Amino acid sequence: MAAGSLLALLDDIATILDDVSVMTKVAAKKTAGVLGDDLALNAQQVSGVNAERELPVVWAVAKGSFINKLILVPAALAISYFIPWLITPLLMVGGAYLCFEGAEKLAHKFLHSKHEDAAHEKELAQAVADPNVDLVALEKDKIKGAIRTDFILSAEIIVIALGTVATASFSKQVTVVSLIALVMTIGVYGLVAGIVKLDDLGLYMMLRKGKSTFKQIIRKVGSWLLNATPYLMRFLSIAGTAAMFLVGGSIIGHGIPALHHLAEPLKEISFALPMLLDAIVGLLVGAICVVIFTIISKFLPKKQH
Q: Which residues of 3-13 are buried (b: 16+ CB within 10 A; e: fewer)?
């Protein structure tokens, strides 16, 4: 009797694991697009950091991302169970914040004079050269910004994953969403860590000694990596800003029925047209948020440094 119960239990566990595996694969496919945006954004967030501090910064942001997931997964499951109507408005607020961050980056780039940028760079250079300055403290704003951005993208990934298992039992929802959150976090920050250290890998390969054909090829590949890495980081910086508008605009578009219905026929014409619509929505929402924030900030007391 006990053996029969054990076998039945093992059979149930195997069935549940099989179902979870299938649902996790479906959820992973649906969140893959957001994963690309997440990767671009986070690689862009750590660009420009001192070489020795790149991996510590990535690790600090990764820890923040894990904390985000620990907050978001239970919160999303609870909201989905008790007040499911609240998920869309919360996501739209997050989408608007992403658009605001993207628009703020563009405003800083195009509205600040070259003199202001040069003065800022000089200030940073002096701070880095000062041995009394704690470089980790200088990175805190960058890390906090990356973690805030990760929070919004993580929320979207979790909600998408939750949507794929909406009709499943609560235990399966917990398992699938938790697995997706864990795998996506490890995947994103593992790739980010690899990307930011490409130049070091290229330098290591260039310094390999030897006259064999293989060693010569290694040195040439290393030289190519070393030369290509700055262009890759520049591309990721641009892609990261664009991703803010695309992801934020997409979230807002899905929350507004008229925009969502407008995007449906566009898919049949070209896959690029819905993305263009998302970008336009993101730019408009971001510009509006920047204007509102600028007006409000004029009436707030300024911080004393």
A: eeeeeeeeeee
How many Å apart are CA 142 and CA 148, to the nearest integer? 10
Question: Which sequence spans correspond to the domains of the chain?
Answer: 14-299
Using alpha carbons only, how large is the chain's radius of gyration in Å?
Answer: 23
pTM: 0.69
Supply the DSSP symbol for 301. P
Cβ neighbours of residue 216 under 8 Å, at least 6 residues apart? 210
Beta strands, E only, the chain:
none
85's CB contacts (< 8 A; 6+ apart) are none
> Mean pLDDT, to the nearest integer, of 13-24?
45
Provide the 3-class DSSP secondary structure of residue 169: coil
Alpha carbons 291 and 305: distance in angstroms, whole number? 25
d(CA 70, CA 84): 19
At 182-199, the pLDDT tens digits run 888 888 788 777 877 787
Instruction: State which amino acid sits at residue 288.
Output: I
Tokens for 3, please give them. Answer: 């053996």
Task: Give yes or no for a contact between 277 and 120, defined as CB atoms under 8 angstroms apart.
Answer: no
Would you give the DSSP letter of residue 291? H
Q: Which residue has the tokens 């002096």?
A: 126
Q: Residue 158: is its pLDDT beyond 90? A: no
Give the other-Cβ count within 10 Å of 133's Cβ: 12
Q: Token digits for 24?
A: 């996790």
For 84, the enclosing helix (H) or strand (E) is none
Give the pair of three-digit tokens for residue 253. Answer: 């578009």
pLDDT of 6 > 50? The answer is no
Q: How far apart are the C-alpha atoms of 55 and 52, rounded to whole Å?
A: 7
Coil/strand/helix, residue 230: helix
Tell me whether residue 48 is exposed, middle or buried, using C-beta atoms within 10 angstroms of its C-beta: 0 to 12, 13 to 18, 19 or more.
exposed
Q: Which residue has the tokens 């169970």?
A: 81
Which three-class secondary structure state does DSSP give residue 209? coil
